[in-house]
Design goal:
The protein is an alpha+beta fold. 20% of the residues lie in helices and 44% in strands. A 3-stranded antiparallel β-sheet has the order 1-2-3, covered by helices on one side.
């Protein structure tokens, strides 16, 4: 029987500012890996998703 694995994440978005020249919002993204109680900060959603894929060995 295959062992079930689970990974849980809490993702928080904090508006850090606005780039007036580019007219875009600048976000700080905090990802907490629940099982390890580890928090990591990112500036883009793509970076946060890549981190979660690496933690879970998602391909």
């Amino acid at each position: 029987m295959e062992e079930k694995q689970m990974a849980s994440f809490v993702i928080r978005f904090h508006l850090a500012g606005v780039d007036e020249e580019k007219n875009i919002k600048l976000w700080r993204i905090k990802v907490t890996h629940v099982q390890e109680n580890e928090e990591t900060l990112f500036e883009t959603m793509e970076e946060a998703v890549l981190y979660m894929k690496e933690i879970t060995n998602y391909s």
